[in-house]
Write a structure and sequence with these properties.
Number of strands: 11
Structural class: mainly beta
Largest sheet: 7 strands, mixed
Helix content: under 10%
Number of helices: 0
Shape: globular
Distance between the termini: 40 Å
Strand content: over 45%
């Protein structure tokens, strides 16, 4: 079983930082694809950052240079370090483990 449990969301001021964590109940060692997605009010869900078991990453243009995705297989956890946050980053952030498992979502609100 690989059940994601997210944490780290909250309210921050513009320019601040936040680190999201997604802990899996089972080993992610053999899972290639993991990622973070977000959905803002009135918007469709979009990919923010993805990472493979080989370490290759991909970021949405809007977060390049500000967000960093990483994974720690020993801790069965994927992270999203968010820096220089903007009000436009306000959304519910979802963790995706492989193609079958989604987290419950965690709210990130950036105030101006």
């Amino acid at each position: 079983q690989v059940q994601p449990v997210e944490s780290g969301g909250g309210l921050v001021q513009a320019g601040g930082s936040l680190r999201l964590s997604c802990a899996a109940s089972g080993s992610i060692f053999s899972i290639n694809h993991m990622g973070w997605y977000r959905q803002a009010p009135g918007k469709q869900r979009e990919a923010v950052a993805t990472i493979t078991s080989g370490g290759s990453t991909n970021y949405a243009d809007s977060v390049k240079g500000r967000f960093i995705i990483s994974r720690d297989n020993a801790k069965n956890t994927v992270y999203l370090q968010m820096n220089s946050l903007k009000p436009e980053d306000t959304a519910v952030y979802y963790c995706r483990i492989g193609f079958a498992y989604w987290g419950q979502g965690t709210q990130v609100t950036v105030s101006s």
